[in-house]
Amino acid sequence: MTAAIALAAGLVSCATPHASREAGPPGPALQAWIYPGSTGEPACGAPAEYRDGRLREGVLKPEYWKVNPEGTLTLHTTGEDAPCNGFSEANAADVKAHSAQQYTTVSAMDRDSVAALVGNPDRRATAIRSMTDLAHRIGFTGVDVDFEDFWNWSEKDEAHYETFLSELSHSLHAAGLKLQVDAPAELHDGDSPFRFAKVMAAGVDQLTVMTYGRVFATPAGEHCWAIAPEGWVREAVAYAQSQVPDADRLVIGLPSYGFAAPDPCDTKKIQDSVPVSELRKRPGWSDDAEVVRRRRDPGSGEIRWSERGVLYDAMDGAAMDARLTLLGRLGVRHVSVWALGGNPWFSRTAAE
């Protein structure tokens, strides 16, 4: 679907309920992450969103675990640590009641934390046991590994990471559970130390390629690039499909958020993963159809505008619909949205 066609769908409100697909030719099956948050943050709205049935036949992935700098795990539990979306028996049961499959996400956002865990056999064993035991006890489908900062990994880090995945997959499979792993969007072999083929060979059941965040590759002095330019996404999907030819083992990430950044761009000062409900409060936001038409970026479908030296960029429902249609045409069978909580969702027509 082109950006022009996507405009016909109009803006889709974050609060609009949508049912899961029940008729028509099947499009990509849907998944979504749930992020822990503090009281009053948009992330706290995630349960109200998934309770509308949008993922009744899909997958929910609450982030219950994080990796500490010393390589140990912390469980986000409901309370002071994570008032919203943290782990509790009640929260886990609610997630299960509104989805067909569920994964507990474990997150590490910097290379040092990743290396501290995967490079130590004792810490690996402890973490694997904890994650397997929890997923099995609460009846989830498995574990989703979201370790990032890939471009700062060494070859040794990657080798240790592959060992960790092999050990984790063995533990999960022995318990009747599955392993999902999040991967960088790459365009060719050696784009980062992450090795698709080796990771899949470690026993991964599904690989989720995070085709968003292109803004962080913006050269100094330019306007910040879009979150997920269509041409780049096409290339990343093509490479991922060459590495994971089984379409049911490949998941493509789709953004539903926005960002704010200095204009010209300074990638170190980007406010990333800003919920669209928050961007609606920023200077210059408009729901006027003609204004939205002018601001829609033809290369990504995203809404972009500058105000007082700040560039704003937001996905909306029309952009998400267009991207979902594109991915379906590219042969993608599984799509995972980052993230629920204050962000738009697909229209009923696009999700069918």
From TrEMBL:
Pfam families per the UniProt record, alphabetical: Glyco_hydro_18
Residue ranges occupied by any GH18 domain in the UniProt entry: 30-352
Gene Ontology biological-process annotations: carbohydrate metabolic process
Entry coiled-coil feature ranges: none
PANTHER family the record matches: CHITINASE DOMAIN-CONTAINING PROTEIN 1, CHITINASE DOMAIN-CONTAINING PROTEIN 1 FAMILY MEMBER
Protein name as annotated: GH18 domain-containing protein
Lineage per the UniProt record: Bacteria, Bacillati, Actinomycetota, Actinomycetes, Kitasatosporales
